[in-house]
Amino acid sequence: MASEIGATDAASSEPQARHVIYCGVCSLPPEYCEFGGTAKKCKDWLEKNHADLHEKLYSEEAVAATLSTLSLEAQKRAAKDSQKKEAKAAAAEAKAAETKAQAQILIKRVERNKRKYVTAVSGLEAHGMDLKKVAKEWGKKFATGSSVTKTASGGEEVVVQGDNSDEIFDWVVDVAGVPEANVDCIEDKKKKGA
Questions:
Q1: What is the pairing mode between strands 105-113 and 116-122?
Q2: What single-letter DSSP state applies at residue 29?
Q3: 94: left (phi > 0), else alpha (psi -120 to 50), else beta?
Q4: Any idea what DSSP says for residue 194?
Q5: pLDDT in tens, 76-91
Q6: Is 111 helix (H, G, I), strand (E, B) or coil?
Q7: Global pTM?
Q8: Helices in the chain by DSSP H: which ranges?
Q9: Secondary structure class of 128 (helix, strand, coil)
Q10: Cα(155)–Cα(123) distance, rounded to whole angstroms?
Q11: Under a CB-based contact definition with an 8 Å cutoff, are residues 160 and 118 in contact?
Q12: 3-state secondary structure at position 113
């Protein structure tokens, strides 16, 4: 009996593993989200998914308690730095949205041999698509070979065997959510060698 009590005391004195919550936006613990570039998104994510921790970190009392430990100069600097970070994050978000809105996706149908075609698609990475995943999905969807290749200009494009330009256009507009104005179809004929 005494040995059982001793065993439970030894087990309770051992350090227990901690359960740490990580942010779904920046993958840092929520206490450190302010040091990442996406503090506003992290704060919204935390409020939605872990309201109790959000209340603990961002309530008026918590913010006031944190600021009260700082000197007057440090409080001014902290306020100025937070405004700079928010403005920088908003500017980066606006710039990313603008480049995404202007980015063109080119779908080229290239003649390989007499009646054989390949479809080359470039400009997908500007819309946040992973080219390898898109190539694999199109290969399955169209039951053809598809791959990511480097272009002469240094970029990358997805090449799909066969004439699938119409189906790819529909996929890009419907599934990827790219506006039709940003998708351009081109028919390209391969030049004959001498």
A1: antiparallel
A2: -
A3: alpha
A4: -
A5: 787 788 788 788 878 8
A6: strand
A7: 0.54
A8: 2-13, 39-49, 51-58, 60-68, 72-102, 131-142, 165-174
A9: coil
A10: 9
A11: yes
A12: strand
